[in-house]
Amino acid sequence: MSETKKETNQEQNMDSIKEYGQAVLSNPTTDHQIHLLSVIGEIEGHECLPSTTKTTKYEHVLPQLAVIEDSEKVDGILLILNTVGGDVESGLAIAEMVASVNKPSVSLVLGGSHSIGVPLAVSTDYSFIVPSGTMVIHPVRMSGTVIGAKQTYDYFKQMQDRILRFIETHSGAKQKRMEELMMNTDMMSKDLGTILVGEEAVREGLINEVGGIHEAVSKLHKLIDERKN
């Protein structure tokens, strides 16, 4: 590859990181092309959040995942998470799409993967969490005006069940246990829910292993080699 082309590719990679939090990792030793996808801040849904809020826009992420699925050049996905959660429908849509991509995938929870970030963390083939990483599990909430009718609470329950079923399907955690953690009133002051830190998330079956970026990248290379062989 010429120096000019290398520089152009590097510039495009930097622009992609700056704009979308995405990059392509190319290791000449392994000859693997890994797409790095980061979910940070708050997951933005159908309404735009203030410009002062760090967000991940689902309308940016979904097309990228479609491109990854259709690309012969991309061998795997590395999903980096540090999110407070956000729009439930949008977060679950991203999680479903990550889970359906027919490429090896690994997630790494840095800082935290809270609320709807939990399904995102378990949507990959294998998952890691750093020792200080946190995962907050709590009931579905809605901001703004809510009609206090039975139909509203039924909708909340249906949404909650969808999330719990997804978590159980894509991890070693059980739906009943996750519901217990959601409704826990002992840990989070004046609220419902549970905070799991590092190894606790592994013990509950949500995450496969405690580790950092080295372990996550190494595992993904291994999964890619297994797929190719």
Secondary structure: elements and pairs:
Elements: H1 3-20, E1 22-27, E2 32-44, E3 55-57, H2 58-70, E4 76-86, H3 88-100, E5 105-113, H4 117-122, E6 126-129, E7 134-137, H5 150-170, H6 175-182, E8 194-197, H7 199-203, E9 209-210, H8 213-228
Parallel strand pairs: 2-3, 2-4, 4-5, 5-6, 6-9
Antiparallel strand pairs: 1-2, 7-8
Helix pairs in contact: 2-3, 3-5
Keywords:
8 helices; 24% strand; two-stranded antiparallel ribbon; 9 strands; alpha/beta; 229 residues
The helix/strand series, from N terminus to C terminus, equals HEEEHEHEHEEHHEHEH
Strand content: 15-25%
The helix count comes to: 8
Number of strands: 9
> Ranges with pLDDT <50 over ≥5 residues?
5-18
Radius of gyration: 18 Å
Residue-averaged pLDDT, rounded? 80
Find the structural class using helix and strand composition. alpha/beta
Outline, from the CA principal axes?
A: globular
Helix content estimate: 40-55%
Largest sheet: 7 strands, mixed
- In whole angstroms, the N-to-C terminal distance is 27 Å
